[in-house]
Design a protein that fits this description.
Largest sheet: 7 strands, antiparallel
Order of helices and strands: HEEEEEEEEEHEE
Number of helices: 2
Radius of gyration: 19 Å
Distance between the termini: 59 Å
Strand content: 35-45%
Low-confidence stretches: 13-21
């Protein structure tokens, strides 16, 4: 028996395989002040990220004596500030730092650089994703969680 495959059928088959295995990236690109998350005098807001990039941009407003300790990209219910994807570098107001802690008292734009496979390592395209910012505020440890995507990983929420 000979099976004849028409080119149009082959294209449709291949397209359906690719669409089922690929996701359209989700993300936000905004300006500070639209959706801040504030707690005990500190406000953090995700202002720029995309699920196909390894960076997350945030705006932070913090009281005096606030130091950035670390940041983590996390999926679902991982413990706050203890995820397995810690930040590799951070740019604070356009100055890149590879080591911390670093003072971030006041208002600053931060860009966190995570490992290149951050979203895939977490299956982030199909899960709820967060960025946690680990701080020391006047000697007191703080962890602020900001939601990046909803539970299906389909919508960028930035809160």
């Amino acid at each position: 028996m000979v099976v004849t495959v028409r080119p149009a059928s082959l294209v449709i088959l291949l397209a359906s395989i690719l669409v089922g295995g690929c996701r359209i990236p989700v993300g936000v690109a905004g300006r500070p002040g639209l959706r801040p998350r504030c707690s005990d005098g500190i406000c953090v807001e995700a202002v720029a990220f995309s699920s196909n990039r390894s960076t997350v941009g945030v705006w932070i407003e913090a009281p005096p004596a606030t130091r950035l300790i670390n940041a983590h990209l996390l999926a679902d219910a991982e413990a706050p500030c203890q995820g397995h994807m810690p930040v590799e570098w951070v740019t604070i107001d356009q100055e890149t730092r590879r080591k911390g802690p670093v003072d971030i008292s006041g208002a600053h734009g931060l860009v966190f650089g995570f490992p290149i496979n951050s979203w895939w390592a977490h299956s982030g395209y199909w899960r709820e994703m967060f960025v946690d910012v680990q701080l020391d505020v006047a000697g007191r440890a703080r962890c602020l969680r900001t939601r990046l995507t909803n539970a299906a990983g389909k919508e960028a929420v930035g809160l």
